[in-house]
Amino acid sequence: MDQLLSKAGSTLVTFAIRSSVQLASTYLIKSVSQLVENVPNSDKKRVSRLQHRLQNRIEIVTHAIELIKLLASRGNTNLESTLRLGDELKQEIDEFHDDIETVSEDQRKSSGKLTLESIKIIEKSMNQLLSKIDQAIPIINLALTTSGANLSGNLNNYVSPGQLLRSTAILSSSNEKSKNIKSPIQVGPSFDLTMYDVFYNANGGGSITWKEKYARCKFQILRIPDDKFEYSYNLEVEESFDDGRYHDEEEEKPGKLVLDLRAISRLFFSASGKLLKLEDRSSPVLVLKVRSQSRKEIDEEMLGESDVEGEFSNAKWVAFGDYEGDEDDNDSDEDSESDEDNYEDNGQSNDHVSSLSLIEYVIRLCALQANDQMSIFEVKDERLRLYLNDENNMVHSQNAAAVPKLSSQLAKMTLTNDGEASALEQDQKRTVKSKRVH
Length: 438
Prior knowledge:
By secondary structure, this protein is an alpha+beta fold. The chain has two domains: about 20-150 and about 405-435, no CATH class; about 155-390, no CATH class. Helix content is about 50%, strand content about 15%. It has 13 helices and eight strands. The chain has an eight-stranded antiparallel β-sheet, sandwiched between helices. One of its GO terms (molecular function) is GTPase regulator activity.
């Protein structure tokens, strides 16, 4: 199915679950920062300097590993062996975190200040982790340089600036609302769609046929409260019986589909429904590949508590197109238009192509926030491009340049013999100093 949809000329984007490496490093950095606050003043300057060096390396290296993971998931086989390095680094970070937790526990049992012995343990653990990271840097740098990946190019021409701005405004609004509201928040408007799923014909030689699941349905994305993660979304689809078809409402109940947005592994968008061999549909369709995983399983994967990669689990396919009711279905059309017009962050026209395209961009950005657990305004440019660019074009660009900026950063990250900060860190210090002056 993946190859069929890719070759059909549709846009394709692969979403990757965020690696446990970056989450582990985030928790680690917070723990170390809290611990350093309790170091006596006589030792604090030295330990703080070591902490900043470690934090700088962790942030850059984990970012590089995240990019390698995403590129490997998109078929770049040159990077698959490098992923094992990320697992090894995760183990080193976990062991270091255990040391920090032990020291923190001892501190809580004492008067609150760290003993000289505890400080020595912290410094030794930091230096050991720094050494492990420095050993990994040349391998990561070489992998990125030789992979042929282009992470610094421009966005593809097909990316719609208008839809990108609209979807960004929608997410920004929901991010602000979530700070004060601890209940599900609708992200963007509701959409009036038709839903399709796959019928596997066992008697037809294993042929695959798309069939109509819900002739009409309400499609919406909700940001839901979650104890473990700040950014968590559900995609909810509810069947509507107001579709011009006969329904025995006494015996039937409207169907409903609820998906954890992180379970979406691939997104296809085609300008024509004929991609699905739907002869009666020539308008655009949005196709989602969904991993068969529960929210708990995805949580465990993100936290590094599961060895099972979701991409290799069973997957199902669903597709959506704009609802095309009868021309005399005026009341329903007016309700749909009213729903969108009343949504202050919508900013879209009632054009059918525009509405489905907006869904595509909202899903992309929501998936990015959910997988990276940070605002779209904080993610790196390289990461954002990977979620916006058409993967098909990336696959065909075999002459793509290497990643000069990230490679340059990694190349500079080497320890000096006298233990001073690296050239990169010195540059950053000068930048910070310059900003303070101005």
